[in-house]
Design brief:
- This protein is an alpha/beta fold and 377 residues long.
- Helices cover 46% and strands 11% of the residues.
- It is built from 15 helices and eight strands.
- Helix 4 runs parallel beside helix 5 and helix 6 runs parallel beside helix 8.
- It is globular, with a radius of gyration of 20 Å.
- The structure holds S-adenosyl-L-homocysteine.
Length: 377
C-alpha cells in the first residue's frame, strides 16, 4: 500500500495535490534510506517550484530584547536563567537596523523578542509606524503571547505578520515545556493564532523537532494542524539543548523507537512533507537547521521544499546575549560578509532572490476571497 502511495506522491502533482494519509506520513518520517528519500525530496522541490516559484525571500531578523517573563524549559531566555545579560534595543538602534535591511535589498523585517512588558504596546506601535514610514518594509512580529488589544494596536500601526510557534501539538509535552502564564489571556497558542488571523495578520507557526518525549505522531498531528489552520508561514527546526535550561539539563533521553531524533534529516523530511501538505505556505530553511548543519544544511532545506531565509541583523554586541540555544552566532566574522555569502550561495544553487515583501500565495488567495465576498455582500 505504501508503494502505491509513494507513486501517487511522486506522480501527477501538477494539477492536484491530495492530502497524504497518516500511514504515508509516518512511513516517510521513519524512512532513512537515502535512495528512497530522493523521491520525497524531488516531490517537495517540484511542488515548491510549481506553487511558490524559484524565488527565495530574505527576511532580516532583529532580536530587539531578551527580557522574558516566561519559564519555557527549552529556551535560554527563560526567566530563571540568571546567567545571561539582559538587554533591550532602543527605537533608534532598531530603526538603524531597519535601514540596513532596506539598503541590502530585503522586503521584510522580523522583530523578535522574549515575552515581556518592557516592550510596551504604545512604544511598539510607534516603532512599527516609524519603520513603515521610513522603509516601507513588511513588518513581522515574533513577540510571544500578547494581549488582544496590543495585537490589534500593532496591526493598526502597520504590522503585517505575526509568528507564534506552537512548538509541539502534544498537550502533555506542551504543558511540560511551556508552563502557563499566571493570569495570561490565552488558553493556548492556537487560540491566539485564530485571533491574529481574524485581525488580518499573515500568520506563522511551527514546531521544534526532537524534543525529549516527542513522538512521530506529534509531527503528523502538527502537519494536519498546519494545514487546517491554513498557515501562511511554517517554521521548523531541530531542538538544540541549552545547558542552562531545565529541559537541557535533563539527563540523556530515554530512547524509544517512537522518540523523534533531533537532527537535520528529520528537519528536511518535515520541510518536504509540509511543502506537500501546505503547498502555498512560505517555509523557511531555519536558523536552527543552519546552526547544526551550516550553510550546506540551509541550502538542503531550500532544495527540499523551503523558500525563505532569515539572515540576522541584530547588532553583534547584543547577539551573544540572545542566547535561545547554543551555537547560533558566528561572532568572528563580519556580518555583512556572512549575509553576502548566504545570498551568493543561494544564487549559485540556481535560485533567485525574491523582491518585495514576499506574501504567501495562500494569503493573497484568502485576501482576494475576502474582497470578493465583501463585494458580493
Ligand atoms: N518569545 C517568542 C520568540 C521565541 S524564540 C515566542 O515565544 O514566540 C523563537 C523560536 O526559537 C521559538 O519559537 C522556538 O521554536 C525556537 N527555540 C527556542 N529555544 C530553542 C531550542 N533550545 N532549540 C531549538 N529551537 C529553539
Amino acid at each position: 500500500m505504501i508503494q502505491e502511495k509513494i507513486s501517487y506522491m511522486t506522480n501527477g502533482l501538477k494539477h492536484s495535490i491530495e492530502e497524504p494519509g497518516r500511514d504515508e506520513l509516518l512511513y516517510w518520517l521513519q524512512e532513512n534510506d537515502e535512495i528512497k528519500l530522493r523521491q520525497l525530496w524531488q516531490t517537495a522541490d517540484r511542488v515548491r517550484r510549481e506553487l511558490v516559484g524559484d524565488s527565495v525571500y530574505l527576511r532580516g531578523i532583529v532580536e530587539i530584547s531578551n527580557y522574558c517573563r516566561r519559564a519555557c524549559t527549552y529556551c535560554g531566555l527563560n526567566v530563571t536563567n540568571n546567567k545571561i545579560v539582559r538587554y533591550q534595543m532602543s527605537a533608534a538602534e532598531i530603526l538603524h537596523c531597519a535601514g540596513q535591511i532596506k539598503d541590502e535589498g530585503y522586503g521584510t523585517i522580523v522583530l523578535q523578542a522574549g515575552e515581556h512588558d518592557c516592550i510596551g504596546a504604545g512604544w511598539m506601535a510607534e516603532l512599527i509606524s516609524a519603520i513603515k514610514r521610513r522603509t516601507g518594509l513588511a513588518v513581522t512580529l515574533s513577540l510571544g503571547e500578547r494581549e488582544p488589544q496590543e495585537l490589534a494596536a500593532w496591526k493598526e500601526a502597520g504590522a503585517d505578520r505575526y509568528l507564534l510557534k506552537i512548538e509541539t501539538c502534544d498537550r502533555r509535552l506542551y504543558n511540560k515545556i511551556h508552563p502557563p502564564r499566571q493570569k495570561g489571556y490565552w488558553l493556548n497558542r492556537l487560540q491566539m493564532l485564530e485571533y491574529l488571523k481574524a485581525l488580518g495578520y499573515e500568520c506563522g507557526s511551527g514546531i521544534m523537532l526532537g524534543l525529549p518525549g516527542q513522538s512521530y505522531f506529534d509531527l503528523i498531528n502538527a502537519l494536519h494542524i498546519f494545514r487546517e489552520l491554513e498557515l501562511d508561514m511554517i517554521g521548523m527546526g531541530p531542538y538544540i539543548p541549552h545547558m542552562d535550561t531545565p529541559l537541557g539539563k535533563e539527563s540523556v533521553q530515554k530512547s524509544s523507537d517512537q522518540q523523534v531524533p533531533a537532527g537535520d534529516l528529520i528537519t528536511y523530511k518535515m520541510i518536504a512533507l509540509c511543502r506537500i501538505m501546505c503547498p502555498d505556505a512560505n517555509i523557511p530553511s531555519t536558523t536552527a537547521l543552519a546552526t547544526i548543519k551550516g550553510n550546506g544544511g540551509r541550502l538542503l532545506g531550500l532544495a527540499r521544499g523551503a523558500n525563505v531565509v532569515m539572515p540576522n541583523f541584530t547588532p553583534m554586541k547584543y547577539r551573544l546575549c540572545y542566547d535561545i540555544y547554543p551555537g547560533r552566532v558566528a561572532a568572528d566574522r563580519d556580518d555583512r560578509t556572512v549575509r553576502r555569502a548566504i545570498v551568493h550561495s543561494i544564487m549559485e544553487s540556481g535560485r533567485m532572490i525574491g523582491c518585495g515583501p514576499g506574501w504567501s500565495p495562500g494569503f493573497l488567495k484568502k485576501q482576494a476571497r475576502n474582497v470578493s465576498l465583501e463585494y458580493k455582500g
